[in-house]
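Fold description:
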Amino acid sequence: MSTASLAPEAPVRDKDAARRLAALRTELARRGLQGFIVPLTDEHRSEYVGAYAQRLAWLTGFGGSAGSAVVLAEKAAVFTDGRYTLQVRDQVDGALYDYGDLPAAPPSAWLAGQVRAGDRIGYDPWLHTRDEVRELGALLAAKGAALVAIADNPVDAVWTDRPAPSLAPAAPHPLAHAGKAHEEKLDDIAAWLARRGDDAAILSALDSIAWTFNIRGSDVDHTPVALSYAIAKADGTADLFIAPEKLTDELRAHLGNRVALRDRDAFAAALEADYRGKRVAVDPERAVAAIFERLEAGGAVIDPVRDPAVLAKAIKNPAEIAGHDAAQLRDGAALTRFLHWIGIEGPKGTQTELSAADRLRAFRAETGALVDLSFDTISGAGPNGAIVHYRVTPETDRRIEPDMLYLVDSGGQYRDGTTDITRTLAIGTPTAEMRERFTLVLKGHIALARAIFPAGTSGGQLDTLARRALWERGLDYAHGTGHGVGSFLSVHEGPQRIATFGGSTEPLRPGMICSNEPGYYKTGGYGIRIENLVLVEERAIAGAEKPMLGLRTLSFVPIDRALVEVSLLSPEERDWLDAYHAETLRRVAPLVPEEVQGWLRAACAPIG
């Protein structure tokens, strides 16, 4: 057992953060800059990035998956959303950085209050969108300051042991899992370009490239993508810019003669040299400012429009749906084995967050099909469960003990699908408050799972269903209720979301997969979240005057009956829970050992 199995009282912070911040300030002064912006992203605008692009974590010590920092000569600030409110304060020293809570306190507002006339604030054009640059540039100009593009990132200049980008081989994604050949996808993009009068489309998002060309890689932890760029053309051909070291004979044969293979390092020059007078589709949300700048410098005409792979990728085809069903069931059996195990070992007080996460990974690995986790397991005991995107480390590893709640949010990457599921467990005896709050979250989960809605409805319109029971008690949670999920791709996939913020206006369409994950978090006490994945499907409603849709649950793992306050459930909610557990028992029991089957029957018994 870790000697740090009891969480430390003091925050866990990077001891080198002050030295690194000072080194960056020295570098900025050398370049005549009064500030620099450090986003947590890469040149593909990825959510999860390779080690080489973890500039924010290296500089500040913040280990979350979303955030940014602004460094000035005498002040600095780090900005995160509600998922990381607690984590950022534990990991980033408040003596070095102010804390900005998004979206209420964005970097632009903080900068506006700090800059002086004549200041030059630097940014890396390969890490920001064009709209971000325009907005911030106008704001600084109003203050008499200037936003300055920097050709080589100053963080990289002082990060002396920065890892190199991965050169791991890329591989074909089999048609049996993809459901559609990459040649057909290129034809679809060509037809789309023809309708728009465009000559080419830039694909810079890694998951769009992976999906379009039916390739996968291992260049980013937990997301099976390959570092690359692509340009799809109106004649149905494409250029794929990828490091030569990543190519294999199998991949070359898979891509065929319609895909020209070019070095990834040649991408920027190709934008400037190859498209003079051509009309090029570029996604303002997913493509960085440097792409627009290089195309315009070369005389291209920009058509600012969403990447054509985004929506097509989100609407799963029958092969992808079948793969998801298989992956969710396989994964559910592994998690069920874990719940049986933690139910025995948890009350003994001999396990920690790390040892439990390791055991869960082992159960998934024993399926023989696990490629990777889909994200770092959120294994939160007691108060650590209240940190929405908590990431356990040896320094924060807390013992799992009786009379606490344990939250485990986890998922796997399998070649036929990507999983993401959260369960909250009572270790020992839960309090009345824990049972009440858990049941309110469960009511929200059930409300969304049972939703029937007209075609054209957005996730933003459904979000309140999951919050209503909490709102009626004056409670809420500071994250979205649902995100899209890829097919052996990104665990967070757009364009659909179920949330009341962040532009959740995309209509839900049949074939889309989302998470259903309301929660509640008591700072310093415990966290609760119940998450399943759901598939948007058509619903036949007698007498309906318009097409109707609903959600089919894909995840089957018991929900902890010890945390359910039955008196708070309506008859319809009790019926849903009993039916869900009956289906879980039917599907999962044949896939788990006999000793787990007995536990599963009890865990799936009618709620009464």
